[in-house]
Specification:
four-stranded mixed beta sheet; globular; mainly beta; 9% helix
Length: 88
């Protein structure tokens, strides 16, 4: 019926960037598959998308939903991952 995978740490638990119709790589990968459903396990929630391209979410535990971690804008660059400056 479909595929479910997890995002360690609960990061990027969506198929479209929030407030847009811009697909992330999970939505693009789903488009290439024949399955009718794709899902992401995000902590105590599951986010899924079906062929109608509507993203849905369900919580598997009772209680208040924790706030999403602040992702910040742009790509993340970890300390020490930048290439050396030219000439070094």
């Amino acid at each position: 019926m479909g595929v479910i995978h997890s995002h360690p740490g609960g990061e990027r638990c969506f198929y479209y960037f929030p407030g847009t119709q811009v697909a992330i790589s999970d939505a693009a990968s789903f488009g290439l598959q024949s399955y009718p459903v794709d899902a992401i396990m995000c902590g105590d929630s599951i986010v899924w998308i079906s062929r109608d391209q509507t993203q849905r979410q369900v919580r598997l535990a009772a209680g208040p939903m924790p706030a999403a971690a602040d992702q910040g804008l742009g790509n993340r660059v970890l300390t020490g991952s930048l290439p050396a400056a030219r000439g070094e």
